[in-house]
Model the fold of this input.
Amino acid sequence: MTALTPAFSGVPRVNLMPRSETLRRERDSVTRGWMWGVLGAIVVALLIIAAAFGLRWAAEQRLAAEQAQSNAILAELAALADVSQALATEQELTTFRAEAMGADFAWAPVIASVAGSLPSGAALTGFDLLSGGIPQGEDPAVQVGLTGTISVGSADPIDIVQAVRSLRGVPGVLYADGQSVTSSSVTEGAYAYLLTVTFDQSIYSGEFAIQGEED
Done:
């Protein structure tokens, strides 16, 4: 008859640790796990806060640099304020002069042209002419520049129709016509003629026109 041998081998072991100690160790292990998790979360939070502070510091540095550049530009503009004001004043004065002197012209050539158109024996004895407005269009030959009356005297009667036609042919004359004819009873043979004449703006000198507007 054969003897049976037990199926296990080795030194037998028995866990004699109380159940409460096992539970305590498990709780300690879980607690340590939570502590490490909380510590890791704190470290991550600190890193995030540090990164945020770093980004804020960099932004503040960029802002400070931009503000410094803006202040430098403002300082330069302030230094140029007097120059800008002087240029603005000059522009205002130039515009004012152009408006005030827009109807500037030389009287001597105008009067000489009128006197030169009179027939032989007649002379220019006076005039009452008013300057027109400043140029408003591109063609000065169609704009009124000088208008009024001229007085002509002669010892003998003159052909007033021919005198008016001759006056109309003077360069710059836009319109001319006879207004009245009188004879003096005091001075025998003295005749006075009053003519209406209008010049266009081609007689203007354009000397004070703002550059770019003269054309």
Notes: The mean pLDDT is 79.
